[in-house]
Design goal:
Chain A: InterPro entries: 2Fe-2S-bd_N, FAD/NAD-bd_sf, FAD/NAD-binding_dom, GcvT/YgfZ/DmdA, GcvT/YgfZ_C, GcvT_C, GCVT_N, Sarcosine_oxidase_asu. The structure holds two protein chains of two kinds. By secondary structure, chain A is α+β, with helices and mostly antiparallel strands. Chain A has 25 helices and 50 strands. Chain A is elongated. By secondary structure, chain B is α/β, with parallel strands linked by helices. Chain B has a domain of about 150 residues: D-Amino Acid Oxidase, Chain A, domain 2. In chain B, strands 1, 2, 8, 9, 10, 11, 17 and 18 form an eight-stranded mixed β-sheet that branches. An eight-stranded mixed β-sheet of chain B has the order 5-6-4-13-14-15-12-16. In chain B, β13 and β14 form a beta hairpin. In chain B, α2 runs parallel beside α7, α2 packs across α10 and α3 packs across α10. Classes of the chains: A alpha+beta, B alpha/beta. At the A-B interface, β6, α3, α4, α12 and α13 of A face α1, α5, α7, α9 and β16 of B. The structure holds flavin-adenine dinucleotide.
């Protein structure tokens, strides 16, 4: 078959560039400039889908974003599959592979269709709420059957080979839609010197002018379009974005544009190009020139392939040179519908009849049809269509004046195409995104954009203005208004002359009556994709679903991938009729982003794969990798977890690392700890307010540990802060908590205490930190510095500015292991050099690198907490046995003081941090285990607390654990039990959490 | 109440479905009720139903400013689970879970409670510790929850990236197999229909604009459409608007209202037959019976009543989803929306007496109250009937913010859901 519906001339396709594509495994030909839909129609493909619920054959209805049926699977390879592509919006390219998505064994001969026919009556809206309930035990089975039928297209099974990106844009005027109104607005704004972005979802600019034979200045309108686009392209500050859908309009004139850069070229983006791009636009003014969508009429069997909207018929003929059938019947409530018949006749095919629901309408288009001798049947309607996989004929009958009833006899006409027009619905979606409620207009017979707080203008079809001359003028006015608003002078623009045609008043009619009541008539579809019928909406109303949102949700109207662009207003009209209300009384519709669907990949841009959350490395990372370290994710950092040596198990590595620290010296890369530089004359005061302990007396050159609590008094971070100068401190935070602490400080400063003069700066990346710890650490440091680091000159909790390995360093004598320790901070650039010097010099002292796991074991032996592990947002300093870290003497309060002094926080029997020693010293209690007093007691057992940290201690030769026990600090020596998942129970004794060197002598040597 | 069944459907199909009864009446409000419930969301409707059914109090009105179930009840991502950490919350959510099981039969309305399991993936050692703790606690609380390792997880959820190549490789997961999803609209409608059948007046398009209070006692409410309606007791269940209603009553709540967003993809063929959530990568997803991937986003950091959230949140959420499910990159997002959630500082709800006598509040469910709907209604009905809280609800008193007996579920509540 070779494009039997293709005209030999005309249209915007390039007949010299034929393209091959496949649909359901069969090859077809089309031309450059085709959409997949136009090419399918050219080839006489009628059935493009099976409907979701009733499995009825469906054909192409529309030609743009409003198409509900032609939703196909695209992709030549597994990795490039794209589900649910609207054929009307997919440009044809050579080698395009497409397939329909439902129907078994095929869309053409579908078995489910039989079931749909037979069982359809059993599936009124909401039927699933009324059944599948008995017996209860079978619901799982019912459900899995329902779920198997889910979906339209399918996800690929392989990773996306394409890349995407995003750009932030700013402009004076953002124009949405490049039809006559949008182009006039853009031309005006551009000439006036504004920074302009104009986007249109189609492959070329021109909007409705591309689909018609209209003339401007006596020449084809598309010539004017070409001239305007040419001029716009010459301005540096004008960005033209074809193939770009403005899919969301957010508060403060923030819009997102989805640009498809390569989907028209091939399955996969050419090398070094991004497939799609999001533009995130902040616009001073927005001009919505989004036009209107035609509404089909609702009549019996209106879903049989061959039923279309009139505008689409014209577009296929004029733009693509495709006549989608041979014998056309038009049914219309307005003058514009006549255009399809005129175009059809011009294409040399047979117009069977124009059925006008109005009694006597006289406009320029109706008269043109009359003069052409077309058969016009007034005051009538197509009440039913015959055919299953293609229209074979229609039944026409007279209508009562209101259109509510069929009167007179029924005539049958032979036809294969029915084009209907129930009027046009302005495309108000974007204006609704920002929360603006649309307003019904009786004269337009549609909703118009409502009042808005956005700096938004509208022009053309969106205002219900469908004549080109008016659209052009409104576009120009919007452009001038925008210029004035952004402070630019009026632009000099002369509009082309458009012929204004006389238009008779449209009839407000949506739902065509049938001889039978709606409930008994053949199905009259309102929303094709979700299979919602007029009868279904009536049932919903009858059952009491009266709010329009209820109607929509109960029937699923508008929940398809077209979001009800064709059907919603018709559905509201049917509901209004059923409820005996007007449409505005029934309610308004709410549209939400996206205007049309967007690939997840496009929304996330580059933030995928390796750039999802870039890994953070310390300056010594390479060294760790070379040593074969295993890594742990902490925050965004990769931290060495432990350094296995050949043949070692993890536990063996830990044992070796721990013993090296206790007996010789270990080295830890501590660079990842958050570091915040705090300066200002009130820095000290500020520290006193955000930490629970006192800071007034911390002298220059000294360090102090602090606990940070939330307003509720519960600990959320900790760390050591050093006093660098009277008004200068450097604060350390946990690795994972750094960002949060920084925000916390800023929030408190900016919102609560702006009167304090204090400045914060995150300096984590500026420094590299090597912690050397263990009895030999001083000897090692001495090798690399001339400074006297003896205990007399460099005391515990001092810090010194000295030179280490020839590099200026801040050395803190603080300890997280309980051993003599020095934390050597150098500028990050020197980090690796100093580290390597330490490693080299340390060899003779048994220097051993250790990772986070050993750090955890060593600190647990000392009973030091890890914020986030031994705290969970429910423990205050006293619960942790760290009352020593709270000062209630401070003149100004501190965050958390009030919280931790509430009655429940000071009561007895709170969960408190204790040590736990297992009865069997070899047993390590799994972290997270819950404690009970009597494992054999009556169920449910009362949970006494949980294990927060638990390890094997090689130093001590037994397991150690830290955990919470109700009233634990007063229960030393008592026994608790940990019942495990496998049924076993571990017995443990409550003890001090300080297992090693309880007097803390080793760090002071 | 007309009984629903498969046979009924068949019978009605013979008469072209012309004889279905109304699901609920459209009554004109009476001047006085025993109990007025403000807010016709899931929680308010469930409260009304249990008041009538379990306490025999049927002179009840539910006042809803819009349409029934039009707030968060129809905007949420429908995750239902009970594996919370603290005994108090575990008891509350498990109470609810047990009501979910059998709810369709009880209401004679298929709420499509689908116990397809809910997984919490663990990506760090701390994730593992937190989930192991949760599992251990749940075991003692009698709530099912178990750990699975990454290998097992990959078998159970083929589309999830459990490989070592992930940015934060999955180390394991906890899974509550009794957990899952339900059909949100059906829950609101099912309760509404059943409550109406027991005599409760459901008054839609009826906005409460003030409270009638004298001597520290509430006597009724003032509505925009019907003037003053009297009541012996008033229960306020207005989710995101709780602060506004509390202000009418002259007190403040420790609640902040934030926008919370969700989104769906276009319907695709079966891809995920369970619910996966990750606190660490920060996203969660399930697939609806229609085929949409249902994805939860985070809350906006700021407060507001706009029912619209920020685009940046959507970007972050989808990043997380594609990171976890790389094959979704070419799947397309259809729609996003937002609701206003009432967040408490400790991520646990308030079911409580208030400073005003006979006025009770049920709020603060924040990002996770859909799962609580049956339990919340059941316990709040008890509170309204008895004038004092049910033992399970007692710890959720507003007083806890004074005493400090907080029930901090940030860990278990984690990613917004
Ligand atoms: C995007 C999103 C995802 C979520 N996901 C989940 C999830 O997966 N799992 C989960 O458990 N929870 C989830 N939640 C939370 C859950 O939706 C809510 O906690 C729960 O629905 C709140 O209870 P409700 O149904 O009664 O609230 P609503 O439905 O919001 O009911 C409150 C009602 O009060 C009415 N009202 C307000 N003011 C007045 C007035 N002055 N007069 C009269 N009526 C008034 C409102 O119109 C509204 O109908 C989610 C929420 C959102 C927004």
């Amino acid at each position: 078959m070779t494009q039997q519906n293709r005209l030999t001339s005309g249209g915007r396709i390039d007949r010299s560039t034929p393209l091959t594509f496949t649909y359901n495994g069969k090859q077809y030909k089309g031309f450059k400039g085709d959409t997949l839909a136009s090419a399918m129609l050219a080839n006489g493909i009628d059935v493009v889908a099976r409907s979701f619920k009733y499995s009825r054959p469906r054909g192409i209805v529309a030609c743009g974003a409003e198409e509900p049926n032609a939703v196909l699977q695209l992709g030549a390879t597994e990795a490039t599959q794209v589900p649910n592509v609207r054929a009307t919006q997919q440009e044809l390219f050579d080698g395009l592979v497409s397939a329909s998505t439902n129907g078994w064994p095929s869309v053409d001969t579908d078995v489910m269709g039989m079931i749909g026919k037979m069982g359809g009556n059993m599936m009124p809206p909401g039927f699933y709420y009324k059944t599948f309930m008995f017996p209860e035990s079978l619901w799982d089975t019912y459900e899995s059957m329902i779920r198997k039928a889910a979906g339209i297209g399918r996800a690929p099974k392989e990773k996306d080979p394409d890349t995407y990106d995003a750009i932030n844009q700013h402009c004076d005027v953002m124009i949405v839609g490049a039809g006559p109104a949008g182009l006039a607005a853009a031309l005006t704004a551009a000439r006036g010197g504004a920074r302009v972005i104009i986007a249109d979802e189609q492959n070329e600019f021109g909007g409705s002018l591309l689909n018609s034979t209209e003339q401007l200045d006596g020449k084809p309108a598309t010539e004017w379009v070409r001239a305007v686009v040419e001029e716009l392209s010459t301005y540096d500050d004008v960005l033209l974005l074809p193939r770009s859908t403005v899919n969301g309009y957010h508060d403060h004139n923030f819009l997102t544009i989805h640009e498809r850069r390569t989907d028209h070229l091939a399955d996969i983006a050419p090398v070094n190009t991004v497939r799609q791009r999001m533009h995130r636009v902040r616009a001073k003014w927005v001009v919505l020139a989004t036009g209107a969508h035609e509404r089909p009429l609702v009549y019996a069997n209106n879903d049989v392939p061959g039923c279309m909207i009139t505008g689409a018929v014209s577009a296929y003929i004029n733009r693509y040179g495709v006549v989608p059938g041979n014998e056309l019947v038009v049914m219309t409530t307005n003058d514009y519908g006549y255009q399809a018949a005129l175009d059809w006749a011009d294409a040399g095919r047979k117009v069977v009849a124009i059925v006008d629901t109005r009694e006597a309408a006289v406009g320029d288009r109706t008269e043109a049809a009359r003069q052409r001798g077309l058969n016009i049947i007034s005051g009538s309607a197509v009440i039913e269509v015959q055919g299953t996989k293609r229209v074979t004929g229609v039944s026409v009958a007279g209508l009562s004046a209101s259109g509510a009833k069929v009167i007179g006899s029924v005539t049958k006409l032979k036809a294969d195409t029915v084009a209907t027009s129930g009027g046009w619905s302005p495309v108000i979606h974007l204006s609704c995104h920002t929360g603006s409620r649309p307003v019904w207009s009786d004269s337009v017979v549609g909703f118009l954009p409502g009042p808005t707080v956005q700096k938004q203008l509208t022009a053309g079809g969106i205002n219900g203005q469908y004549e080109t001359a008016v659209a052009l003028q409104e576009g120009l006015d919007a452009g001038q208004k925008a210029l004035a608003e952004v402070g630019l002078a009026v632009a000099d623009v002369v509009l082309p002359e458009a012929k204004t045609l006389k238009v008779a008043a449209p009839m407000s009619l949506f739902h065509i009556p049938h001889l039978k009541p709606t409930s008994q008539a053949p199905k009259q579809f309102v929303d094709y994709q979700t299979d919602v019928t007029a009868a279904g909406i009536e049932i919903a109303c009858r059952e009491g679903f009266e709010a329009i949102e209820h109607v929509k949700r109960y029937t699923a109207m508008g929940f398809g991938t077209d979001q009800g662009k064709l059907g919603n207003i018709n559905g509201m009209a049917v509901a209004a009729k059923a409820l005996n209300k007007t449409i505005p009384e029934t309610g308004t519709t709410v549209f939400r982003p996206n205007y049309t669907p967007i690939a997840f990949g496009a929304i996330i841009g580059r933030n995928a794969g390796a750039l999802f959350e870039p890994e953070r490395y310390t300056a010594m990372h390479k060294w760790h990798v070379e040593q074969g370290a295993m890594f742990e994710d902490v925050g965004q950092w990769k931290r060495p977890w432990y350094y296995p040596q050949k043949g070692e198990s993890m536990q063996q590595s830990l044992n070796r690392e721990c013993m090296a620290v206790r007996n010789a010296v270990g080295i830890l890369d501590a660079s990842t700890l958050g570091k915040i530089d705090v300066q200002g004359k009130d820095a000290r005061e500020f520290l006193g307010r955000v930490y629970s302990n006192a800071w007034a007396k911390l002298a220059i050159g000294k360090c102090r540990y602090g606990l940070m609590c939330g307003e509720d008094g519960m600990v959320f971070d900790d760390g050591v802060t050093a006093c660098l100068g009277e008004n200068h401190f450097v604060m350390t935070t946990t690795t994972g908590g750094a960002a949060h602490v920084y925000e916390w400080l800023e929030i408190y400063h900016q919102t609560e205490w702006p009167e304090l003069e204090v400045y914060f700066n995150t300096v984590t990346d500026h420094w590299s930190t090597a912690t050397i710890t263990g009895p030999n650490s001083r000897k090692l440091l001495e090798e690399l510095t001339d400074f006297d680091v003896s205990n007399d000159n460099f005391r515990y909790m001092d810090w010194k500015q000295i030179t280490v390995a020839g590099v200026p360093a801040r050395v803190f004598r603080i300890s997280f292991t309980g051993e003599l320790s020095f934390e050597i901070n150098v500028q990050a650039n020197y980090g690796m050099a100093v580290w390597e010097k330490l490693i080299e010099a340390g060899a003779k002292y048994g220097l051993t690198p250790y990772g986070t796991e050993t750090m955890h074991v060593l600190r647990a032996e000392k009973g030091f907490i890890i914020a986030g592990q031994d705290t969970d947002g429910s423990v205050h300093p006293y619960d942790l046995g760290m009352g020593w870290c709270v000062s209630n003497q401070k003149p100004f309060s501190y965050i958390g003081k009030r919280g931790m002094n509430r009655s429940d926080c000071t009561r007895a029997n709170r969960k408190q941090l204790v040590g736990l020693k297992t009865k069997d010293p070899k047993q390590v209690i799994p972290e997270g285990s819950a404690a009970v007093l009597d494992p054999n007691g009556p169920k449910p057992l009362e949970i006494q607390g949980h294990i927060s940290s638990s390890y094997w201690s090689e130093t001590l030769g037994h397991s150690i654990a830290m955990g919470f026990i109700k009233g634990g600090l007063d229960k030393m020596g008592e026994t608790v039990y940990y019942p495990l998942g496998d049924g076993t129970v571990i017995e443990a004794e409550i003890c001090s959490p300080i297992f090693f060197d309880p007097k803390g002598e080793r760090q002071n040597v | 109440m007309q009984k629903y069944s498969g046979f009924g459907l068949f019978k009605h199909s013979l008469t072209h479905h012309e004889n279905w009864q109304r699901v609920w009446r459209n009554p004109t409000p009476k001047k006085k009720y025993d109990v007025i419930i403000i807010g016709g969301g899931g929680h308010g409707l469930a409260t009304a139903y249990y008041l009538a059914k379990e306490h025999g109090i049927t002179n009840v009105a539910v006042l809803e400013k819009g349409h029934l179930g039009g707030g968060n009840a129809c905007r949420n991502t429908t995750i239902v689970r009970s594996n919370y950490l603290w005994d108090e919350s575990a008891a509350l959510y498990e109470h609810s879970m047990q009501l979910w099981e059998g709810l369709a039969q009880e209401l004679n309305y298929n709420v499509m409670f689908s116990q397809r399991g809910v997984y919490h993936t663990c990506h760090t050692l701390q994730d593992m510790r937190s989930n192991e703790r949760l599992v251990a606690a749940n075991r003692l609380q009698g709530i099912d929850n178990e750990m699975v390792d990454a290998e097992q997880l990959q078998k159970e959820i083929p589309s999830l990236d459990c490989s070592k190549n992930a940015r934060y490789p999955i180390m394991g997961a906890s899974v509550q197999r009794r957990a899952g999803n339900a059909r949100h609209d059906a829950v609101a409608w099912g309760y509404a229909r059943a409550a109406d059948a027991l005599g409760v007046d459901l008054i839609q398009s009826c906005e409460v604009i003030d409270m009638e209070i004298s001597d520290g006692k509430i006597t009724g409410v003032k509505t925009k459409q019907y003037g003053v309606l009297k009541a012996d007791r008033v229960g306020c269940v207005v989710a995101g608007n709780s602060g506004v209603l509390a202000k009418m009553a002259g007190f403040e709540l420790p609640v902040e209202s934030h926008p919370l967003q969700a989104l769906v993809s276009e319907p695709i063929k079966p891809f995920l037959d369970t619910v996966v959530m990750s606190n660490h990568v920060h996203g969660y997803m399930s697939q609806s019976d229609k085929g949409d991937l249902v994805i939860g986003a985070g809350i906006d950091g700021w407060v507001g009543y706009g029912q619209r959230g920020s685009y940046g949140i959507i970007e972050h959420t989808i990043q997380a989803i594609v990171e976890m499910f790389p094959c979704t990159s070419r799947v397309r997002m259809n729609r996003q929306w937002g609701g206003i959630v009432d967040a408490c500082p400790d991520a646990s709800p308030i079911i409580s007496e208030t400073p005003i006598k006979n006025l009770f509040f049920n709020c603060g469910w924040g990002t996770g109250g859909f799962k609580g709907t049956p339990g919340s209604g059941n316990l709040f009905a008890h509170t309204l009937a008895d004038g004092k809280p049910h033992p399970i609800a007692e710890p959720f008193s507003i007083q806890r913010f004074h005493t400090g007996a907080l029930i901090d579920e940030h860990g278990a509540a984690g990613v917004a859901h």
